[in-house]
Amino acid sequence: MSSLVLGTAGHVDHGKTTLVKALTGIDTDRFQEEKDRGLTIDIGFAHLDLAPDIRAGIVDVPGHHDFLTNMLAGSTGIDAVLLVVAAHEGPMPQTREHLQIASLLGLDAGVIALTHVDRVDAEFAELAGATAAEEVRDIIGCDWPVVQVDAPRGTGLDDLREELRRLAESLPQPSDDPVFRLPVDRSFTISGAGTVVTGTIWSGHVAVGSRVRILPAGHEARVRSLQVHSEEKKEVGPRQRCAASLVGISRHQVERGDTLVTDASWRPSSRLGVKLRLLKDGTRPVEHGQRIRLFMGTGEVMARVALSQEHALEPGDTAAAVLECEADVVARTGDRFIIRFYSPVELLGGGRVAEVNPPRHWRDRVANWNACLEAEARESIEAALRLAGARGTTGAELRLATPHRIATDLPQEWNAIRIGDRWFDPEQRDRMSSQLRLWMEQAHRDAPLDSGLALQSLRAAGGKEAAPQLIEASIERLAGSGDIVIDGPRVRLAGHRVQLGRHEQATQDVLVQAISTGGFMPPSPADLADLCSAPRPLINSLLKLLIEAGVLIQLTPDLLLTASAERDLRDKVLRVLGETDCPTPSNFREALGVTRRYLIPMLEYLDSIGWTERSSDGRLPGPLARAALMESKTE
Ligand SMILES: Nc1nc2c(ncn2[C@@H]2O[C@H](COP(=O)(O)OP(=O)(O)OP(=O)(O)O)[C@@H](O)[C@H]2O)c(=O)[nH]1
Ligand SMILES: [Mg+2]
Known about the structure:
The chain is α+β, with helices and mostly antiparallel strands. It folds into five domains: about 1-170, P-loop containing nucleotide triphosphate hydrolases (Rossmann fold); about 180-260, Translation factors (Elongation Factor Tu (Ef-tu), domain 3, Beta Barrel), CATH 2.40.30.10; about 270-370, Beta Barrel (Elongation Factor Tu (Ef-tu), domain 3); about 405-500, Winged helix-like DNA-binding domain superfamily/Winged helix DNA-binding domain (Arc Repressor Mutant, subunit A); about 510-635, Winged helix-like DNA-binding domain superfamily/Winged helix DNA-binding domain (Arc Repressor Mutant, subunit A), CATH 1.10.10.10. About 35% of the residues lie in helices and about 25% in strands. It is built from 19 helices and 31 strands. A hairpin with a 2-residue loop joins strand 2 and strand 3 (about 55-60). Helix 10 (about 425-445) packs across helix 12 and helix 17 packs across helix 18. The longest helix has 21 residues, at about 425-445. It is elongated and about 125 Å long. The relative contact order is 0.06. The protein binds guanosine-5'-triphosphate and magnesium ion. Guanosine-5'-triphosphate binds next to helix 1.
């Protein structure tokens, strides 16, 4: 069974509702007020079998200008238009306005039903039909067939059904886009079924039992049951009008304008990068900062237009812009929308979303927006990756960032690299590598006495905006190409050598001399700074170099011994351990000739390297000392 959704269009009182009832037997005017006034106020729904295997959902819209907001909520998800024009009046203002909306929504399939033909003669009807077809050609750019009908008497209905069947068969297959989305056009409660929402499925499928999110608020719910035209279904898909009863959500948490989704990648945003088109016969320009009404999906939100140009947009113009909305909206790249003037409410134009939540500085992104919206799949997706920048994008996010359908993996020959679960524009990796290189050059210049830098600070130099996997891959690449050398937690540029000046060399010699002379009780770094009358940072850097070179051993931050003194210390301690059973600190103090201030850090250091081991009575040989004692016994 194939399906489609038809939307009526046309001026008030031209006979849309009457025609839908004649075709389907369903009165789409649901409210008493509509019946009393003989006027459609809100959208109504019906369905029609066009062939044994083709079922059309019908959204009947109001023609009165005052209810255009409701008309828009009904029209955004439709596949084709049933334009109703009364023969005795011909095309009228809302005929034209509805066609303009269809054009802005990218709808080019339709049929013209010329109603009220019983009220005019054949020649007049012919002329009215030709005028309506001309109007369609002018606004939509297509030839739509004209069928003359007299709905109250049932004349012409078979011809119309036939034309609608042909129209349904001519529609391209629905896209196999897997991303489920249902903009909600009604929500209500039914006792026993709980909260029910209805709408036209824009894409993807949803099944009974699925978990859904209701955006922009983010409420979660579970689908209890699904119906299409009052028939229970296990699963529903694109081009179907469906009613879903939801568990876990109250009627007040979901309303027209909300969107049901299943994918976790949807991010509601109040900023949209768009390509805007103003109607050529509009009467108003749009200036930078203009407040407008934005219609997307089934919702309406106030927004301000930020233009990239200084002068106003004139009717007929097309331009890139950012819409700063007064509430979050749910959109993906390629979505179409309509804008109307804030007050008086006049149709201005519409456009397509090029980027959801673009950054503040967006003017240099417009070329990529154009490619993303207008180019073929490869170019469009590569543009989306460029827009994603160093943050990259997951496959699921990428699906929402291009109007094209994406397979799980992008073809190898495309300009796209995958790192972990994210896709990047390859240039991002090159850019990140040079950014990190430059940072290292600067860091080495800033700390010339540091033989290396903390790897962690190199990672941080990649920036908060960048995906950690891009930074890591760029570091690995720099290491792989031999540009940088990673040594544990330290990293340096391959060519980096510490060059000591004459003065620094002399100071370093004094340090070694002083520490060496100090034996087991050397001066602390603070004492050394005083001794050399040198700043502490310089002393620290020089000491660090000596530690890295193995000349000095750091027992604690304040206690450094020469390598030979440290060896001597271990030998002496080993001797005490060999001669005394579980020696106490005073045994060691005697043997080493040091004060307690030195002894305690020394013993703690020896514990930490496994030379000694603490016990309740004193010290025992640690694993290293035991091995050394064994060795000396066997010798
Ligand atoms: N004579 C004649 N009357 C018609 C025909 N179609 C509709 N009508 C009458 O025209 C009036 C308006 O018809 P509706 O179907 O309510 O018009 P509509 O386009 O749905 O109006 P809105 O929804 O308010 O825009 C009703 O009184 C209908 O009976 C027709 O083909 N011939
Ligand atoms: Mg009506």
